[in-house]
């Protein structure tokens, strides 16, 4: 079973990760991981921090001469914010000594984890909550999940995502998105082609015009001092039929995918295939007719997004997630001071305005371990050679 853990604070010296359970013999390099880390840092709407962090995960164990050894892979990533010459963070984040003149943060931001974190742990300072709830953690999460993603790539499984809605700007119908997305994903790169063909510094959207409108929407809302969320879609191609389970509720693949997406900062919902739209349609406009061609069963459409009974059908997985607007905003909201209980305006600190293009990379990443585990469960194996022997050729 593949598992991973992350540790580290947003403004501490570094993020640490352990990714373990990947078979021996998988080619893995820091460059492979870095490609996804760089993608996670880009996209219109990002804040100031992403301009100077240069995320790179150093592999500290578990890989020898470019191949995994089967041992836990430990990863380490520096926070440049901490290391900068003018940084006050070593003082704010000191692991010992007295607080001294280090300021306490007492104004919780609505929508962030600030108040619930203080209530849960009994802190008199919001700082430790900010540090660990921050989506800075997703840098290491992407690094750890890239190990699973590399494993999937070796078996011909590709993951790619794109933005379909930012605030009020988005695609019309589900079918409209399908005709654009599925054509792109049919290339030899499969779903990866979705991001390989997109402008990485932009909104990472399938339609250039829409991406221009999305940028305008972000620019407008930034000027107003507010923030934006949106909806993204993740495609997975090359998935064999039969992963997951209809037998046990906790092994249904759709449920596990939902946990991975909803376990990510700022996510408020997930859909598989038509998702909520399927509740508005009649059965004949939802269920995918079955056909047999080229020695395997297929579906004439893929409105159920590649899953029936919690088990993969062999069609691409189609997963959508919705991200709420970023909680830190220039124009204040009302809040109550945790010390004085006085009603005051929130204070603004540097922040993303809209992180959808970055969140797409995180969402692509977090689903990789779910699929990798379904494969390991079904085909097992301690080495890549063993798994490849057991893995079905399509
Ligand atoms: C990629 C990404 C970037 C984010 N950037 C910010 C940010 O710059 N400022 C902010 O206040 N929240 C940001 N968030 C959202 C917060 O991390 C999130 O709302 C907070 O941890 C509370 O958790 P919850 O939204 O899951 O309830 C970001 C989330 C993601 C996924
Ligand atoms: C640092 C990252 O994202 C951060 C996520 C985040 C939050 O509150 O979630 C707040 C901001 O951090 P800071 O206050 O240091 O500017 C973002 O920059 C990152 O993605 O690497």
TrEMBL record:
Please cite one Gene Ontology biological process associated with this protein: chorismate biosynthetic process
Residues binding FMN are: 132-134, 265-266, 309, 324-328, 350
PROSITE patterns in the record: CHORISMATE_SYNTHASE_3
Binding locations of NADP(+): 40, 46
Cofactor(s), names only, from the UniProt record? FMNH2
**Reactions this protein catalyses:** 5-O-(1-carboxyvinyl)-3-phosphoshikimate = chorismate + phosphate
Q: Which InterPro entries does the record associate with it? A: Chorismate_synth, Chorismate_synth_AroC_sf, Chorismate_synthase_CS
What Enzyme Commission number(s) does the record list for this chain?
4.2.3.5
Pathway given in the UniProt record: Metabolic intermediate biosynthesis; chorismate biosynthesis; chorismate from D-erythrose 4-phosphate and phosphoenolpyruvate: step 7/7
Q: Which GO terms describe its molecular function?
A: chorismate synthase activity; FMN binding
SUPFAM superfamilies, A to Z: Chorismate synthase, AroC
Question: How the cofactor binds, per note?
Answer: Reduced FMN (FMNH(2)).
Q: Keyword annotations for this protein?
A: Amino-acid biosynthesis, Aromatic amino acid biosynthesis, FAD, Flavoprotein, FMN, Lyase, NADP
Q: Which GO terms describe its cellular component?
A: cytosol
Q: Note the subunit structure.
A: Homotetramer.
Family assignment from sequence similarity: Belongs to the chorismate synthase family.
Say what the protein does: This reaction introduces a second double bond into the aromatic ring system.
PANTHER family hit by this protein:
CHORISMATE SYNTHASE
Put simply, this protein is called Chorismate synthase
Species of origin reads: Rhodohalobacter mucosus
